[in-house]
Amino acid sequence: MLRGLIFIIAINAFQLTAQLNEIEESDFGNNPGNLVCYVQPATGKSRPLIIVLHGCTQSAQEAISVSGWDKLAKENDFFLVAPQQRMSNNPNRCFNWFRAEDIDSLNGEAASILNMLSYCLSHYSIDTTQIFITGFSAGGQMAVSLLALTPARFNAGAVFACGPYGLAQKPSQALKAMHGKPELNEKQLTQRVMDLHPNATIVYPSLYIYQGDDDPVVYPVCASLLFSQWKGIHQLNDLTEQTVELKDHPFIRRTSAGSMDNSSRVVLYQFAGLGHQIPVDPGTNPGQGGQYNVFSKDQNFWASLNVAIDFGLINEEGQ
């Protein structure tokens, strides 16, 4: 988590021409978390929006290019919002998911990201029924926080190499939490999310979780805790669970839990041989994308494309 997390939030900042020109957007409103905002706009009207949160030591631009979200957004015409952490906030450029003041919808970094989203909704033609968030490591952990804090804002989220909301409440708990030893048990972790909205009827977003079995930074048990937490808040019992190996990808185990009408889903993808990385499939053929990087691994599986399909942004048969 202190080594990385990718989330996508972009604002009136990316000018999309033949080349992607990155422009810092500083005037998106209140910025209590002191973040930088970038946007890659779509060209059509009423288009989906994805917030992408980078991991530790990454930049927002690196996160979207390594994952291939920039390519997907161009080809399918949806918005990207990419928040950028400053070294003055965290010397490793990690989003501060382990600080209570930064995972507050009215304060800190979480509030800045939500204000970026509000700015985009008021300045661009965005389909408000198709707003999503994704992130890697520390970015993923911040994405989970935003899904828990403001579930009505998002249709679904997809996170890589991270754990449940409330995994740590202060910096001194972060490393222990990343090793799968949080202060709270599974039931308490579920209750921590539900306590955020004690008197409301909440429809929580679907969540797609990606985790490498060989991750030495965020231990795989963290993803299992997140799966359990989200299954708990969706009130899905063990009878709804199903685990299969992905067709043509026997190294990927997919465990899903869902309601009868599939309106709410929690899915865990577990990758054999994957470390603290995202799966990519570099190349120019249809269905290929992503780039080589210290935080990515060629597994002949483009995770971002799979996320876009799960989100309903891309038709699987068309790929």
Features of this protein?
319 residues; alpha/beta; Rossmann fold; nine-stranded mixed beta sheet; two-stranded antiparallel sheet; globular; disordered N terminus
Structure in words:
The chain is an alpha/beta fold and 319 residues long. The chain has a single domain (14-318), classed as Rossmann fold (3-Layer(aba) Sandwich), CATH 3.40.50.1820. 25% of the residues lie in helices and 24% in strands. It is built from eight helices and 13 strands. The chain has helices at residues 60-67, 69-76, 108-123, 138-149, 174-178, 186-194, 221-233, 303-311, and strands at residues 14-16, 20-22, 36-40, 47-53, 79-84, 126-136, 156-160, 206-212, 242-246, 249-258, 265-271, 278-280, 296-298. It has a nine-stranded mixed β-sheet, sandwiched between helices. A two-stranded antiparallel sheet has the order 1-2. Strand 6 (126-136), helix 4 (138-149) and strand 7 (156-160) form a beta-alpha-beta unit. Helix 6 packs across helix 7. The protein starts with 13 loop residues before the first strand and ends in an 8-residue tail after the last helix. Mean pLDDT is 88; it is low at 1-21.
Task: Give the SSE string.
Answer: EEEEHHEHEHEHHEHEEEEEH
Which structural class matches the secondary elements? alpha/beta
Shape: globular
Q: Order of strands side by side in the largest beta sheet?
A: 3-5-4-6-7-8-11-10-9
Oligomer: single chain
Q: CATH topology, what is it called?
A: Rossmann fold
The count of helical stretches stands at: 8
The helix content, as a percent range, equals 25-40%
Ends: how far apart? 32 Å
Kindly provide the name of the CATH class: Alpha Beta
* Major β-sheet profile: 9 strands, mixed
Q: Provide the number of structural domains.
A: 1
| Low-pLDDT ranges | 1-21
